[in-house]
């Protein structure tokens, strides 16, 4: 009969646990608690009956708006707040849409188109209630690089030149990126975004912000330099900038400095004070844009000082146009990278908001929503879309409850496209570039977080810095690829590395800790406790064997240094008393995974220890590896224990029993001589 007694006492306000129980081996513990064998567990576990899905269930899962919009929308409670949030997002979309279109090397109205078509698709199919899809600086810049590579300059105005226009190349990228995201949805690859870790994305976005800033120097200062692309873009751009600095337009520079100063001063000193008194954030970017437009509408400053203005802005919605299919193969690789980056950034933002507000997300459904949004948008002159942190934060802080806010925002942008867009034709491009640069302030300042990242984790710091430097010095695609490879290589290396530590017991406890970390811990006589942490596989098996040999060799050396000569005198015949048996306890609680080659090496190591006179015990082997190790272990003498303490106590009791039986068989007086 087994007896287990446990009590908790309070002594001097310090909790104390006293437990009495038998020493268990794994087989005994399982038998006493009716745990079935691994082969029989599948039949014991009853799977819940599968729910029969109806056609309506599939429709409601694929189109979430059926539930929240058409069946359960609370018009009286949520519509007013969603409307205010939609207005707030729309007033941000107007200057951002026109500004970020510059990065994509397309017309300013393209950014406004992106605030309509992909947004409406996502509102119907997406599962996040608060993210705002549309223009994103990173995606526009990456698309702009492809546009510059394949578009024929002047093809928009002169069809006889042949080739492809900028918008044709951009929409081809958008369609391919959308199709890639839809394929990811079909094959349930929503978790693929985890390839881009948070640290990698941080380094990537910070470096892209530097590239964006560099690309806007021409517009900000009016310097006459050619736009650089490809390898060494940033260094070459700065070289050209200093070489052509004498062509600076001081009127353009003055307007840029004034605009940047206003935006920075407002953001640092006035934003919180003013917004705390308003029902929605003050749209400072839109206000600056409107004031600048009005100023240059009624004056001739831009013409007098040769400032570059927006020029003709098309009114109305874009026509339906199929992107050129012949371009698909040329832009495929770039589109795949853009699709992955867009999904990763958008999902990171969506998860951040959903965790804060406690509602679920479907990662694969997000692929469908974003992918189909890009596919639809590609037929209406849209670049690849992504979630904007600033617009999403505005939609959430103003009080938006659902994606109805995005629908309201899209409706307002349609009004702007139909009747108001042409008003912004006199606006200098340097004003929009100033808005872009100020919006990038947070990303540019991420470089200041690097010391903290490095202090917390050298590997994360390495990934961050490698990505940051390679993107800036080489190219966006090449830098991102190198960052991903380095990140995965570090994960692989960490997966094959293992650690072997010798444990000791804290006095008067059953806690076993590393001897190199705890000075008060002591080794148990005749017991070597070795903790193994990591996987045990074909790659690191020899590393495991070498480290195990090292710690057991130290054990042999220590044992030989303290060996006692024991002699029993029985009349005339001396009888040697066998030294207490030594054992090695392998603490396998931190074993992650073991394959056939690793288990074979474990068996060989155990066999070697047994042949050297050790008892070998395996303790705390995870259930996922226990049965596999037992079935593939050729050494039958090894014992399995649920905890290290069970193994230690078992060995001590066995030694005591053997010594008692030895002394009981001696008829005469014995003496122990050193």
From TrEMBL:
<dbReference type="InterPro" id="IPR036513">
    <property type="entry name" value="STAS_dom_sf"/>
</dbReference>
<keyword id="KW-0812">Transmembrane</keyword>
<feature type="transmembrane region" description="Helical">
    <location>
        <begin position="133"/>
        <end position="152"/>
    </location>
</feature>
<dbReference type="InterPro" id="IPR002645">
    <property type="entry name" value="STAS_dom"/>
</dbReference>
<protein>
    <recommendedName>
        <fullName>STAS domain-containing protein</fullName>
    </recommendedName>
</protein>
<keyword id="KW-0472">Membrane</keyword>
<dbReference type="GO" id="GO:0016020">
    <property type="term" value="C:membrane"/>
</dbReference>
<dbReference type="Pfam" id="PF00916">
    <property type="entry name" value="Sulfate_transp"/>
</dbReference>
<dbReference type="Pfam" id="PF01740">
    <property type="entry name" value="STAS"/>
</dbReference>
<feature type="domain" description="STAS">
    <location>
        <begin position="517"/>
        <end position="651"/>
    </location>
</feature>
<feature type="transmembrane region" description="Helical">
    <location>
        <begin position="84"/>
        <end position="103"/>
    </location>
</feature>
<feature type="transmembrane region" description="Helical">
    <location>
        <begin position="199"/>
        <end position="217"/>
    </location>
</feature>
<feature type="transmembrane region" description="Helical">
    <location>
        <begin position="248"/>
        <end position="266"/>
    </location>
</feature>
<dbReference type="InterPro" id="IPR001902">
    <property type="entry name" value="SLC26A/SulP_fam"/>
</dbReference>
<feature type="transmembrane region" description="Helical">
    <location>
        <begin position="278"/>
        <end position="298"/>
    </location>
</feature>
<feature type="transmembrane region" description="Helical">
    <location>
        <begin position="327"/>
        <end position="353"/>
    </location>
</feature>
<feature type="transmembrane region" description="Helical">
    <location>
        <begin position="404"/>
        <end position="424"/>
    </location>
</feature>
<feature type="transmembrane region" description="Helical">
    <location>
        <begin position="462"/>
        <end position="493"/>
    </location>
</feature>
<feature type="transmembrane region" description="Helical">
    <location>
        <begin position="164"/>
        <end position="187"/>
    </location>
</feature>
<feature type="transmembrane region" description="Helical">
    <location>
        <begin position="430"/>
        <end position="450"/>
    </location>
</feature>
<dbReference type="GO" id="GO:0055085">
    <property type="term" value="P:transmembrane transport"/>
</dbReference>
<feature type="transmembrane region" description="Helical">
    <location>
        <begin position="109"/>
        <end position="126"/>
    </location>
</feature>
<dbReference type="InterPro" id="IPR011547">
    <property type="entry name" value="SLC26A/SulP_dom"/>
</dbReference>
<keyword id="KW-1133">Transmembrane helix</keyword>
């Amino acid at each position: 009969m087994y007896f287990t007694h446990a009590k908790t006492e309070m002594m001097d306000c310090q909790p104390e646990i006293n437990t009495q129980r038998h020493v268990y081996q794994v087989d005994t513990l399982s038998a006493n608690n009716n745990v079935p064998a691994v082969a029989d567990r599948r039949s014991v576990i009853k799977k819940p009956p599968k729910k029969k899905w109806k056609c309506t269930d599939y429709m409601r899962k694929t189109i979430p708006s059926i539930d929240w919009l058409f069946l359960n929308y609370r018009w009286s409670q949520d519509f007013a707040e969603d409307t205010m949030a939609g207005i707030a997002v729309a007033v941000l979309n107007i200057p951002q849409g026109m500004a970020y279109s510059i990065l994509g090397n397309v017309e300013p109205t393209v950014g406004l188109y992106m605030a309509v078509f992909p947004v409406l698709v996502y509102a119907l199919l997406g599962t996040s209630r608060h993210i705002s899809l549309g223009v994103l600086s990173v995606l526009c810049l990456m698309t702009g690089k492809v546009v510059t590579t394949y578009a024929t300059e002047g093809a928009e105005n002169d069809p006889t030149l042949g080739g492809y226009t900028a918008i044709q190349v951009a929409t081809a990228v958008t369609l391919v990126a959308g199709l890639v995201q839809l394929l990811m949805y079909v094959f349930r690859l929503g978790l693929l975004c985890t390839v881009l870790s948070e640290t990698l994305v941080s380094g990537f976005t910070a470096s892209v912000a530097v590239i964006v800033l560099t690309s806007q120097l021409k517009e900000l200062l009016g310097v006459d330099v050619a736009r650089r692309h490809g390898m060494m873009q940033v260094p070459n751009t700065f070289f050209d900038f200093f070489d052509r600095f004498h062509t600076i337009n001081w009127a353009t520079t003055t307007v840029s400095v004034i605009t940047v100063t206003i935006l920075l001063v407002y953001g640092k000193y006035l934003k919180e004070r003013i917004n705390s008194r308003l029902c929605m954030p003050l749209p400072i970017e839109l206000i600056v844009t409107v004031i600048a437009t009005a100023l240059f509408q009624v004056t001739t400053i831009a013409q007098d000082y040769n400032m570059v203005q927006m020029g003709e802005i098309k009114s109305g919605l874009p026509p339906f146009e199929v992107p050129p299919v012949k371009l698909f193969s040329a832009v495929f690789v770039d589109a795949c990278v853009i699709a992955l980056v867009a999904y990763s950034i958008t999902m990171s933002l969506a998860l951040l908001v959903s965790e804060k507000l406690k509602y679920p997300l479907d990662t694969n459904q997000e692929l469908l929503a974003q992918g189909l949004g890009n596919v639809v948008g590609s037929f209406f002159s849209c670049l690849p879309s992504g979630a904007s942190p600033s617009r999403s934060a505005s939609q959430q802080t103003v009080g938006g409850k659902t994606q109805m806010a995005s629908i309201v925002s899209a409706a307002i942008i349609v009004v702007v496209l139909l009747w108001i867009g042409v008003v912004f034709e006199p606006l200098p491009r340097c004003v929009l570039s100033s808005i872009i640069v100020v919006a990038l302030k947070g990303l540019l300042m991420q470089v200041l977080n690097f010391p903290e990242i490095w202090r917390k984790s050298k590997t994360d710091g390495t990934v961050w810095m490698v990505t940051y430097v390679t993107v800036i010095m080489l190219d966006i695609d090449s830098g991102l690829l190198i960052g991903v490879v380095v990140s995965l290589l570090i994960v692989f290396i960490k997966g094959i590395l293992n650690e072997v530590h010798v444990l000791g017991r804290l006095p008067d406890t059953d806690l076993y800790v590393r001897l190199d970390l705890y000075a008060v811990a002591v080794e148990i006589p005749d017991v070597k406790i070795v903790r193994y942490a990591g996987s045990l596989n074909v790659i690191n098996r020899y590393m495991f064997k070498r480290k195990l040999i090292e710690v057991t060799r130290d054990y042999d050396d220590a044992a030989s240094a303290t060996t006692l000569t024991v002699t029993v005198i029985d009349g005339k015949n001396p009888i040697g008393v066998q030294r207490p048996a030594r054992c090695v306890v392998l603490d396998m609680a931190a074993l992650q995974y073991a394959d056939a080659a690793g288990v074979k090496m474990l068996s060989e190591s155990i066999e070697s220890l047994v042949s050297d006179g050790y008892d070998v015990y395996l303790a705390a082997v995870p259930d996922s590896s226990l049965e596999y190790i037992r079935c593939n272990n050729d050494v039958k003498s090894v014992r399995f224990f649920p905890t290290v303490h069970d193994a230690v106590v078992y060995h001590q009791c066995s030694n005591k029993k053997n010594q008692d039986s030895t002394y009981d068989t001696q008829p005469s007086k014995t003496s122990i001589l050193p």
